[in-house]
């Protein structure tokens, strides 16, 4: 009886290890298929060209490598990326001058209309304070009521009246709607989506996935 019990325990352990191996293989497969080597030169599509009016440039404009981020400020997945990976990316690649990021905010779907308002807020803050961290901080705000607007103006060290007047003008909405149209043309169906040379990275991937690609592309440029 004791031997049979021991045998069942060993069988259970083996099954657990086998399932764990399958899970790791499957996870690797999913990750690999979220990084699409498109064989398309996106440089030819001009998506890496900075648009002074509607783009948000993070990092040194003379950095070695430019990547493009299509972002939806109303998406929980963009919020997850900001919380999970952005700080590492900033410390290792942006602050060191290796890369810069062009951020293009757009509305992934009709349910994400708040994305346009948040995008307008980000642009209005940066009109007065280009060094503001509002691109990261905007994800923590939910209601965007008067108190939130006051908090944003104080934290960003900007004039409240100029700020709220800019937000009400909605003068950046057309730019973000253009980004929305462009995102459809680029077959962007999830956020965040990154373009790094000829590679398209869909969704929130583990940090090592992006690091591997960045290191390879930077090496190719050296």
Question: CATH topology of the largest domain, anyone?
Answer: Glutaredoxin
Any idea what the CATH superfamily of the largest domain is called?
Answer: Glutaredoxin
The CATH architecture category of the largest domain equals 3-Layer(aba) Sandwich
Query: Unreliable segments (pLDDT under 50, ≥5 consecutive)?
Result: 22-33
Share of residues in helices: 40-55%
**Head-to-tail CA distance between termini:** 67 Å
Major beta-sheet overview: 6 strands, mixed
User: What sequence of helices (H) and strands (E) makes up the elements?
Assistant: HEEEHEHHHHHEEH
Count of structural domains: 2
**Count of individual beta strands:** 6
Structural class computed from helices and strand pairing: alpha+beta
